[in-house]
Every structure is written in structure tokens, then in C-alpha cells.
Amino acid sequence: MATTESPTDTSALAALNDAYVRSVLRGDVATFDGILAPEFFCTNPDGTVVDRNGFLAQTAAPPSLDDLQAVDVRIRLFGDVAVIHGRTAFTTKTGRRGRGQYTDVWQRRSGQWLAVAAHVTRLAE
Question: What pTM did the predictor assign?
Fold first, then answer.
């Protein structure tokens, strides 16, 4: 299936990606509650895999980052599925700087984009 480009979908997904990154930094469970599909799974930087409830629980814990920036974000559309790739730059509460990569998979359901999967890798600098 070829990539389908839609400026409206791309803008919506870019905004959702920004909200996702901000929510990680702020421990914003309410935002995640609205954008994660019921069957969402995330592969964490340490290799553990958590379901939606586990992800919301870890989001509710005090954030370990002081700063998190997404760069080089790429949004690819495949009909009602989108894949977002991005690099991150972050600073932990202890001042350690790092970088990472993430891949998020989104699905459009009844006109709403929901995150169905995420994979996060972080590296210390």
C-alpha cells in the first residue's frame, strides 16, 4: 500500500505527537487517557513491555526528565494507519543529558487518531 498524504491528517498527527511528548514530560495521565487505544502497548527504553494501564501508571509516577524535545519527526500515512518516527534529546532530573529514538503507531477510528503502539530507545550522552 502506498503512503497516502493528507495535510489535515498530517497536521492532526503532528499536534498529537507534540501532545504525547509534552505529556511524557509532565506526567499528564489525562491526555494519554484520551489518545491511547484500549489495546495500546509500549516497549520502554529498558525493554519492558507495558499495556495501556501499565503505561498510564508509569506516567502517573513523578517524571524523571527535566526536558524532552522531539526532533526530526517523520509522519507517514497508510490509509487509516500512521507511523511516526522521531529522535529525542532529553535531560534527566539529575542533569544527565541523553538522546533517543521513538516509533509510534496510530490508527484512525471513527475519525479519531489513537496511539496503538510505541517503542522508545534512550541513550546516555
Answer: 0.91
